[in-house]
Amino acid sequence: MMTTTATTASPAQVTVLGLGSMGSAIARTLLERGYRTMVWNRTASKSAPLADAGAATAATAEEAVAASPLVVLCLLDTPAVEQVLGSIETAVAGKVLVNLTSGSPAQARANERWARERGAEYLDGKIMGDPPYVGTPHVLFPFSGSRNAFAAHEPTLRELGTVAYHGEDAGLAGVEFMAQVAVAYELLIGYLHALRLVQAEGVDVVEFAERVAGSMPAFPALLTSMAQAVKSGDYQPDLGSLNVQAALMDDMISHRRSVGVEAIRMREVKELMDRRIADGHGDQGFSSLFELLAEHSHA
């Protein structure tokens, strides 16, 4: 059914390059919202279900790009993006390229330069969510790059999920994505270590998980206060002074060793605390460990 984002007189035209699980979900969502959608995939057979749903198909990526003012790339990885960009070089002038492929901030900036040199506008985007939820608010899309391109195509991009624009530096969406994913992985590997610990002590892991979940409402305020400390350099004793916390770490490490649970993360924290205390900052809090996390600080 047609929506207000695609006018009834002339539905907007969008091209989607790459029809893996996520690319297919994006193309299907656009089709369902009333957009005239052109699709291309290196393995042509992947286009068939979308063609059956009403998408136009192209034999080449260059042909697909030529068909639409807005071109969405959703490919496997950076080498795949580089290969496709090389094949569409003569067709991108005047187009808006939206790259939703995972990649580094540096690669996004390189892609932006590539596009600009060829007369195209570039938006880098990242996808935080799973294919079945594309088209709902449960998938987050951080974007960065051309402000004009974002303003012109924001209604279309909002069809895909919850959208945020982070600025004209094309690398900023990648920074957001990498940092958000890193927080999740760091939290979850620590959580798995804790589950191993409580299970080794005979504690029910599900009941423990429920208690941990109950403590989570306290974390947003702590996260914000730690970021403020990092920004200002004023490290108050947020979880208590390092002098007190370091003593606790010995117990944490010995407890894990006593039940045969890996203590590498606790040893890392203790080593950082000891270094910070040795530098005369034992009265500061946990957030002050930030000062030791640049690579050169380990030299």
Description:
The chain has about 300 residues and is of the alpha/beta class. It folds into two domains: about 15-175, 3-Layer(aba) Sandwich (Rossmann fold); about 220-299, N-(1-d-carboxylethyl)-l-norvaline Dehydrogenase, domain 2, CATH 1.10.1040. The chain contains eleven helices and eight strands. It has helices at about 20-30, 50, 60-65, 80-90, 105-115, 145-160, 170-200, 205-215, 220-230, 240-260, 265-280, and strands at about 15, 35-40, 55, 70-75, 95-100, 120-125, 140-145, 160-165. An eight-stranded mixed β-sheet has the order 3-2-1-4-5-6-7-8, with helices on both faces. Helix 2 links the parallel strand 2 and strand 3. Helix 10 packs antiparallel against helix 11 (about 265-280). The radius of gyration is 24 Å and the shape is elongated. The model is unreliable at about 1-10 (pLDDT under 50).
Helix content: 40-55%
Q: What is the CA–CA distance across the termini?
A: 61 Å
- What global shape is seen? elongated
Looking at CATH, the homologous superfamily of the largest domain is: NAD(P)-binding Rossmann-like Domain
Order of helices and strands: EHEHEHEHEHEEHEHHHHH
Radius of gyration (Å): 24 Å
In the CATH scheme, what's the topology name of the largest domain?
Rossmann fold
What would you say the CATH architecture of the largest domain is? 3-Layer(aba) Sandwich
- Low-pLDDT parts are 1-9
β-strand amount: 5-15%
Q: How many domain regions?
A: 2
Number of helices: 11
What is the mean predicted local confidence, pLDDT? 94
**Class by alpha and beta content:** alpha/beta
Assign the CATH class of the largest domain: Alpha Beta
Strand arrangement across the biggest beta sheet: 3-2-1-4-5-6-7-8
Number of strands: 8
Q: Major sheet, described briefly?
A: 8 strands, mixed
